[in-house]
Design a protein that fits this description.
15 strands; 333 residues; Gfo/Idh/MocA-like_OxRdtase_N; 9 helices; Gfo/Idh/MocA-like_OxRdtase_C; Gfo/Idh/MocA_Oxidoreductases; Rossmann fold; Dihydrodipicolinate Reductase, domain 2; 27% strand; Gfo/Idh/MocA family oxidoreductase; 2 domains; nucleotide binding
């Protein structure tokens, strides 16, 4: 069978990783790259670096990866849809919900595979966690807490921490539990002198009643990527930096020391760190998207799901700006 012809637009920090994976992917040939700013990381290899999406489409593509700044996603995605080219667009899908809706409608209208690069869904720790939750191993789910903190990434200039880092947590939380957001309440801070927020604290609730909490910033000297799910039988901790998943079980042995029991609450049980396979999330994401283009039954992050994430992110920003809780159903989400 003939290999799929893939293109890549955007050769920055994320684009260089996409180029590496595309070149190593079975059944795929990287046939064209484009970036009006050139090739700062030298990833083009023997390919000419084109200046625009029209030139890239002109080489004949089956699909294209869009790894440009968010502000250009809508324009580039609509061009690909009009040309009949499947697309994997980096997250967030677009700079606002209106643009994300246009992209979603354009790809669905012509039956193209349109996917969003929410790479955390392909982290081995979160994939294993989701499977265990779906199997009922935690019992009733009470709460999901995420912490995503680290130093400021100089590559980000067009959005704040909510739409850059925060969209990871919005997407993975709804996906892991299998329930959309019902409401959010947030506070933001502006500490680095930029026009966009660089810190956010969000509390929310999913439609199934699960309580959520997200702490996100790029002001911290340490890097942290943690998801904690607490439920009837204990708590899972997914460390997505190291792709580790740990289970803290509720204890079944009564605490005889009454003073200690008074402070501890739920008694402590066994702690297990699971041995899980750890493939590279970006490679898994590409394999799933490739298979979807080939017509196989795979679970890509759809553009409609990406639209919902952008809409929730905008609700978070509205909540912080207006100082009130935002109900998502009132926005039609």
């Amino acid at each position: 069978m003939t290999n799929l012809r893939a293109g890549l637009i955007g050769l920055g920090m994320m684009g260089r990783h996409h180029a590496r994976v595309l070149r190593s992917l079975d059944g795929v040939d990287l046939v064209g790259v484009a970036d009006p700013a050139g090739d700062p990381h030298g990833v083009a290899g023997g390919l000419d670096v084109m200046a625009d999406i029209e030139s890239l489409i002109g080489v004949g593509l089956d699909y294209c990866v869009v790894a440009t700044p968010t502000a250009y996603h809508e324009e580039l995605g609509l061009a690909l849809a009009a040309a009949g080219v499947h697309a994997l667009i980096e997250k967030p899908l677009a700079k606002d919900a209106a643009g994300a809706a246009k992209l979603t409608d354009a790809f669905e209208a012509v039956g193209l595979v349109g996917a969003v690069g929410h790479i955390e869904r392909f982290n081995p720790a979160l994939q294993n966690l989701r499977s265990r939750l779906a199997a009922g191993e935690l019992g009733e789910i009470y709460q999901i807490i995420t912490r995503r903190q680290g130093p400021f990434p100089a590559r980000i200039a067009d959005v704040g921490v909510v739409k850059d880092l925060g969209t990871h947590d919005i997407d993975l939380t709804a996906w892991v539990v299998g329930s959309p957001y019902a409401s959010v309440s947030a506070r933001t801070a502006y500490k680095s002198g930029r026009e966009h927020e660089d810190l956010v604290a969000v509390t929310g609730q999913l439609a199934d009643g699960t309580v959520t909490s997200h702490l996100v910033n790029w002001l911290s000297p340490m890097k942290e990527r943690v998801t904690i799910v607490t439920g009837d039988r204990g708590a899972y901790i997914a460390d997505t930096l190291h792709a580790d998943l740990t289970f803290h079980a509720n204890g079944s042995i009564p605490t005889a020391w009454s003073d200690l029991a008074q402070f501890r609450g739920v008694s402590e049980g066994d702690v297990v760190r699971y041995a899980i396979s750890k493939p590279e999330p970006l490679r898994t994401e590409h394999e799933v998207f490739r298979d979807a283009v080939l017509g196989k039954d795979t679970e890509v992050v759809t553009m409609r799901q990406g639209l919902a994430t952008v809409a929730v992110a905008e609700a978070v920003l509205s909540s912080a700006r207006e100082g009130r809780t935002i109900a998502l159903d009132a926005l039609g989400i």
